[in-house]
Amino acid sequence: EKKELESLKGQESKTLDGRHVELAGNIGTPNDVQGLINNDAEGVGLYRTEFLYMNRSEFPTEEEQYESYKAVLESMNPKPIVIRTLDIGGDKELSYLEMDKEMNPFLGYRAIRLCLDRQDIFKTQLRALLRASVHGNLRIMFPMISSLEELLSAKEILESVKSDLDKEGIDYSKNIEVGMMIEVPSAALISDILAKHVDFFSIGTNDLIQYTTAVDRMNEKIHNLYNQFNPAVLRLIKMVIDNGHKEGKWVGMCGEAAGDKRMIPILLGMGLDEFSMSPISILPARKLITSLKYEDMKPVAEKVVSMGTAKEIEEYMQNNFA
Ligand code: PEP
Ligand code: MG
C-alpha cells in the first residue's frame, strides 16, 4: 500500500480518460511546505496566513510577512501558491486586536470585512505579498467574500497598493492571479457575476456547509447535522463550478471535503479543476483519481444532486467508492 503510493510520486493526477486535475496542499506556515514536497503536491491551494498573526503580541511587520511568503514561493517555485489574505475573526482571535463581543462571531466582523474596514492592516499584507511575488508563482485569494461590492473593494485596494509600489519603483509580478473563496451561500448564488471579476474560485466547504445549513461548525451538539454530503451544499458546489467554467475560470476547493475519497468522484464528475487538501491525503487522492474515468463520474455527480438526503448520498458513495 505504502509502496504503491510511493510509486505515484512524480505521476500526473490524470483520470483514465485523460482529464488532468491539480492536487495541491493546505498549509498554515512555511514549515508545512516540506510535508507538501514529500507528498508531491502540485502546488499550494491554501496558505492560511492568519497563523502569522496569531500567538504573538503585535501585528507582523511587512518585512516579516514578506520573508514568510517569499520562503513558501521560493521553496515550491514554479508551482502555483495560493495565499489567502487575513481570515481572522469567527473562532480566530488576536490578543492585541481589540474586538467587540459579538452575538454571532461567525456572522460578524471577520476576514475580508475586517480587512476592508482596517485598510492599514490589509495594505501591509498586500504590500508584502506583492513584493514577494517576484520569487515564485503567486495567486492571491480573498476569504469570506459575500457580495460583489466586497470583491470590487478588495481588488481596488490591491490596485492602489500596486500603484504605490510603482511610484516607489518596487518590483512585483505582473501576472498574479486574483481569486476568491466561495464559502458563503450569497457568493455561490451570484457566482455567475463574481466569475467575471476573478481569475479563479476556491470553494471553502468548511464554512459553506455551516452557512448553507445554519449549523455551527464548532458545535459538537449538532455535529450530526454538519455534513458535506448535504444535497443543498452539493447543488451550490455544482453551481459554482458551472458558473466559473462559463466565464473560462478555473475552480478549486480547499475545504476538508476536497480530500475525502467519497467526495472526490462527485467533485471530479462536476468538473472541479483543483483539489487542495492536507499533505497526507494527496497521494491517496492521486491513486483514486488515476483509477477513475471522468466520463463515468459525470452521471455519478448528476445522480447525487438529485438525491434528497445527505445520508442517502453518503451511503451511495460509501458503497460504490470507499
Ligand atoms: C473553509 O471554510 O472551507 C476554509 C478552507 O477556510 P477555513 O477552514 O480556514 O475557515
Ligand atoms: Mg473558511
Automatic annotation (TrEMBL):
Record key words, sorted:
Coiled coil, Cytoplasm, Kinase, Magnesium, Metal-binding, Phosphotransferase system, Sugar transport, Transferase, Transport
What Enzyme Commission number(s) does the record list for this chain? 2.7.3.9
Top-level lineage group: Bacteria
Q: Which cofactor does it need?
A: Mg(2+)
Subcellular location, in the record's words?
Cytoplasm
The entry sums up its family as follows: Belongs to the PEP-utilizing enzyme family.
Q: Which GO terms describe its molecular function?
A: phosphoenolpyruvate-protein phosphotransferase activity
Show which stretch of the intact protein is covered: 247 to 568 of 568
Q: What is this protein called?
A: Phosphoenolpyruvate-protein phosphotransferase
What's this chain's function? Answer: General (non sugar-specific) component of the phosphoenolpyruvate-dependent sugar phosphotransferase system (sugar PTS). This major carbohydrate active-transport system catalyzes the phosphorylation of incoming sugar substrates concomitantly with their translocation across the cell membrane. Enzyme I transfers the phosphoryl group from phosphoenolpyruvate (PEP) to the phosphoryl carrier protein (HPr).
Show the catalytic activity: L-histidyl-[protein] + phosphoenolpyruvate = N(pros)-phospho-L-histidyl-[protein] + pyruvate
This protein's species is Tepidibacter hydrothermalis
Residue ranges annotated for the PEP-utilising enzyme C-terminal domain, each copy included: 3-292
